[in-house]
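Hello Y.,

Per our agreement to keep a running log of every chain we model this quarter, I'm adding this entry. I've kept the format consistent with earlier entries: sequence first, then predicted structure.
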Amino acid sequence: MVKKILILFLLVFPLVPAQTDQRLFLSESLILDMELSSEIDIIKTPSSSIDYVSAEFNFKPEPDYRQELLSLKTEPSAKNKTDHYYFRWEKPVQNKLYYNVFARIKTKNDYKKINKKITFPINQENQELKKYTIASDKIDITPEIIDVSTSLAEGEDDLFEVVFKLGEWTNENIEYSLSTITSKASQKASWVLENRQGVCDEITNLFIAMCRSLKIPARFISGISYTNSELFEETWGLHGWAEVYFQNYGWVPFDVTYGQMGFVDSTHIKLKDSIDSDKSSTRFEWKGRNINIKTNPLKTSVNVFHVGSLPDSNLDISLDFLNKKIGFGSYNFVEATIKNKQNHYLSTDLALSKTSEIILSDKPTKLVLLKPGEEKKIYWKFKVPDNLKDNYIYTFPFILITSTNQSAEKTLSSDKNSVKFKSSEINNILEKKIGEESKSYSKNIELKCDAPSFAYLNNIFKIDCIMENTGNTNLKNIDVCTGKNCIRTDLLISQQQKVNFETKKNSTGSFAITISAENKDITKTKIINIRIEDKPNISIENLKYPENVSYEENFNIYFELYKNSLSNPVSVNVDFIYGNEKQSWQIGKLTAKKPFSITLPGSLLDIKKNKFEIRINYEDRLNNKFQTKNSFYIQLKNPGFWQKIEIYFNNLSRWIEQQISN
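Predicted structure for the entry above:
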């Protein structure tokens, strides 16, 4: 029976927002109509009198490199002060006062184009910036905050790298949560670190505190942004993020809640910057007798007037696997290659989408910082489930999407018999891969290795490798290893070195062999796939035949060929021999059970015991020859006188034919 192989394609569900949301987040610019409004309740008594009420409203959409104020209107008319709008009501008679700010604003999805490394630690001489490096009420700095910050910054000398690492850690380790009072009462940075949760202003408090603990100037930004989160009834609302000061470039936005490092998207409207997050948006003052006032929450409204075009591609991305085909229950990893096409620092998030069957060991979304023109590799470890159906070949699509909506796609195949990686094997390979990324590119080698696609069990096979020094430094004491088998060598600039290994495997199956070249300066890894097969073996099974046959009857001989090896016998030839007679069948490769049924007349039998032989000749893939055979006997049952005469002449005729042919 032929084994049926079914190919199963599985669907992937991308981790991306709806198309309308994406357009807002990705657009190069937006023109937004914003309204900020609130009201004041005047609480009077019969003997009350009032001279005036004033409100200093300090949410102002000031222009900067990514924001342009197109029009502004206030109701009632307000004085436009340096850092606030001043509303004043003289001797109001009504019990409720309203104030509104209407603005049309053009926002841009733009980067501060930092194209040179700024050295860390900072030698801060600007006295005006020092107030942004010390603790404040909500942005407190504790020993615990210092411990986290300094551990992340240790060994780094690039300011952008340090700030990115602080933001990345905060984004990955602090959960956005409305489940506590923090959604209504802002908590200190130390509380956020201890409880590992908070809302946007509190998460930003911690990030700013971490920056300031390293003497990096950072300030709090109050504003409005868009969200598609199901946690909120309204899509536009108040939001908090940070700005970090980079010498010669100015203040650079970091929204750690959204994972936007070094930029914010066009849905962000900046309204205020401050040293601390616990600053009210409005200061009220009144003069009168026997009166009090009650303030109400600020209401926000944003309508999109115009959506700009989508930006050009600023990244090159591709996707690959350690192995494109693996067995059920195997571990593997996705390798994303991402290159910055711009001449300035660039950050993005990478969201990996996959089918529900694939089990990721990492978070699906990762943040990446790229220096000008830099290329990086990012990895996700995963596992294919082991409870899949044996007769199926599964096809798993993976899709990688950046925050700028660029994407790459790759498909993984899995079946029962393909190579399987243990978790520890993947960890070791990833450790070496990441080591390659972290070591100097001025000291680099190319490693190419080749081996046969298959070998036989316990037979020695060769792995041939060529190393080439493509850097500008002579490399000493390179250990080239496969498993515990290592060869130490030197490699001079632009030179090649051949390294050969002889090895064998004592079990069958598909294997991935890791070859590594490593010293204190460089690490390079190569993976070779090889299938280990046993020697082919065929057995003759279920042989059925009659022990006695009458001269007049036809009889049947039945047998089956079984493949008892992992490898497939090839050039299979079946000979069925009786006396001087022979029937032959050429069946090529034996991949499954093969039945044979032969019907013969009793008149072919001799009076004596008749010997039959089944002889199977076959080869392996290296043309080594093998044979399996089986013989049995059938007796002619009680032949009559005339039957014996006929048998005699039949035998004589066959003998004469044989003599003539010889």
